[in-house]
Amino acid sequence: MTYELFNKSKTLLDFTFRGSRVFKGGGVSPLPLKCMELLSLRDAYGHALVELGKSNPNVVVLDADLAFSTKTHLFKEAFPDRFFDLGIAEADMMSTAAGLASCGKIVFASTFAIFATGRAWEQIRLSINYSGLPVKIVATHGGLATGADGYSHQALEDIALMRVLPNMRVIVPCDALQVQSIIKTIAFLEGSFYVRLPKISLPKIYDHFEFQPGCSIVLRDGSDITIGAIGTMVAEALEAHNILTSKGISARIIDFVSVKPIDKTAIRKACIETKAFITCEDHSVIGGLGDAVAKVILESMPIPHFRVGVQDTFSESGDHTELYNKYGLTANHIANYAIKLLDS
């Protein structure tokens, strides 16, 4: 399902998304995104859990000794009898989550992305996915955006590890409002979910959002090139749109919040209506959004495609803005890749 935020003439005016204003005027937000209000996606997650806990006594939350970082401590403070800290034992946490889910509980399990996927993959595979249990894994500190916590904590492979699991749905939101809608929706859906959140706060993108698995959102229309992005890279893609517009290049920007299932219809439509496709993710170029989109392009209507992300390498410690610049994940890099791809 694709939500298109423009009118039939493809002119971006005071358009609406499900009844609420998102951006205004000519496809460019009133202020550069990096100057706009920054909101914590982790805080949004914590508050969404509390709201769920108030309305449904079956909601339980598990963490692995990182409650203040994942913001699940907000749920702990509100409902201490429904919060379980399993300590630094991520595999045990996932197995416990499966047990609680098998008893009818609505289970959210959280820790850093590197630990949720790297240390507990076998338990997720067998106890949760193979068993068909509805555990919601919400992992924080994904990608280079984890910054100075260091390469040991910067999960660049987690999306790939979760995408490969049968029946696992992979969701990567780009702003706080998306997070609230996602958490409140997936709580009552069957099956397992992996939701990836960044450490850093991000600009407000949406005024209103209603999540459905498999959805994507066209944030800007364009006819020359499509730029699909997830998470922290959505804001970078929107900045790249402004750069490309100034150079006379029309770029379509799509937020692929649902990485699995991926919105195949939006990809195929872009292949017909634009000349090239770029994907942007704070993740390895192997196994993430880029590969998910490339598969659809290859099977549908091949057009030139470039994957912006971390190449086949380990990262390093540092400020996330410096890391984004070093590994080619900035708006300027995206714009330059787009220009080169169109000229090739």
Number of strands: 17
Proportion of residues in β-strands: 15-25%
CATH architecture label name of the largest domain? 3-Layer(aba) Sandwich
What sequence of helices (H) and strands (E) makes up the elements?
A: EEEEHEHHEHEHHEHEHEEEEHEEHEHEHH
What does this structure look like?
- The chain is of the alpha/beta class and 344 residues long.
- It folds into 2 domains: 2-35 and 207-343, Rossmann fold (3-Layer(aba) Sandwich), CATH 3.40.50; 39-203, Thiamin diphosphate (ThDP)-binding fold, Pyr/PP domains (Rossmann fold, 3-Layer(aba) Sandwich).
- Helix content is 37%, strand content 21%.
- The chain contains 13 helices and 17 strands.
- The protein has helices spanning 41-55, 67-70, 73-78, 90-102, 113-118, 121-130, 158-163, 176-186, 233-246, 264-273, 289-300, 320-326, 331-343; strands spanning 2-4, 16-17, 20-21, 38-39, 59-63, 83-85, 106-112, 135-140, 169-171, 193-196, 202-203, 216-220, 225-229, 251-255, 258-260, 276-284, 305-310.
- The strands form 4 sheets. It has a 7-stranded mixed β-sheet, with helices on both faces. Strands 1-12-14-13-16-17 form a 6-stranded mixed β-sheet, with helices on both faces. The protein has a two-stranded antiparallel sheet with strand order 2-3.
- Strand 2 and strand 3 form a beta hairpin.
- Helix 9 (233-246) crosses helix 13 (331-343) and helix 10 (264-273) crosses helix 11 (289-300).
- The protein starts with a strand and ends with a helix.
- Mean pLDDT is 90; it is low at 5-32.
